[in-house]
């Protein structure tokens, strides 16, 4: 008998019309314009793999390699990403009036955000398929992550981001050797510039959901969370939603885990969190629509979720509805207050996108949508140190030789 496959990837499937595509060659969107989803031989995985085996493997997202698209171990491009901690937050839980509140802290990943997951898997698979030049528009962190992993893989990267993107993300792209351009506009404007380069300069478009493998890296957030909870699910998961790949990925991990018999029938209620200054998913959810309408004049301090019209909007809405979840928007004042409150109460300095989720959790608890007995998990998608502009520091300058005043 031969050894078990490293990956059980079988094909790609359109998330809307179901058309099948060959996973052995580079693919973009379906002919209908929708994202493609990776599919696996789940019965074979279930027959050959006991979930208990994961505990003996390396503490990275690659412990789930059977459910990832990279076929050959030698093609894996890694910086040690994955297995971020699930941090209990007892003081904040008491303040919210919930029994159990925890944060999965993606800020500890390479490049400081959850984007490292998608970049690691996306770059690895691109390398395996023979791709050598990648291009993408970005709100900042995704570009930084893909530039970093492209450098690790010896690939070229072209990154275009809005001029208002966090400055640190520009530095990350530049030091990794990427071709970096700024545009005076939003991510859609960056996307238009990128598309031109893809069409004329031989780059492969790896922007959100335009290639199928970033999603597979993001779904490992869900696999890790379920494993960390002893292969069960919490009552509520809140996720900051711009392009929504992480939320779609967590839902995909849930469905695959159930199909494998690793999880029971219970569904965690998925909450898509947006900002009041850019809330196309919330509006579509409230309207009962299956897709979103482009949000005009989008603006929020949580820059990473400033996506006026997500390509995978129908997949986001489907995940929210089929889990009994909801979509909620919070304003920038609530977000910044939540960021400060968490840091003071629990010692965690998180990104504004993650902070928006804590603001939403508090709001949903006040509305009794979250009950006092619910087990709630918030996905913090990045470290706060990448967003120094969100904190106002008031520190008096004391002359040398002076005595500090009483507190």
Structure report:
- With 407 residues, the protein is α/β, with parallel strands linked by helices.
- Helices cover 35% and strands 16% of the residues.
- It has helices spanning 42-48, 90-96, 115-128, 141-153, 167-175, 187-201, 214-228, 245-259, 280-287, 313-322, 332-346, 352-366, and strands at residues 9-14, 20-21, 36-40, 86-88, 100-105, 133-137, 156-162, 179-183, 204-205, 236-240, 269-275, 326-330, 375-380.
- The protein has a six-stranded mixed beta sheet with strand order 4-5-13-10-11-12, sandwiched between helices.
- 54% of the residues are buried.
Question: How would you describe this structure in keywords?
Answer:
single chain, 407 residues, alpha/beta, Rossmann fold, six-stranded mixed beta sheet, four-stranded parallel beta sheet, 16% strand
* Tally of separate helices: 12
Number of strands: 13
**What is the top-level CATH class of the domain at 86-112 and 214-390?**
Alpha Beta
| Proportion in helices | 25-40%
What percent of residues are in strands?
15-25%
Question: Taking Cα atoms only, what radius of gyration do you get, to the nearest Å?
Answer: 21 Å
Unreliable runs: none
Q: Name the CATH architecture of the domain at 86-112 and 214-390.
A: 3-Layer(aba) Sandwich
Q: Whole-Å distance between the termini?
A: 73 Å
CATH fold annotation of the domain at 86-112 and 214-390: Rossmann fold
String of helices and strands: EEEHEHEHEHEHEHEHEHEHHEHHE
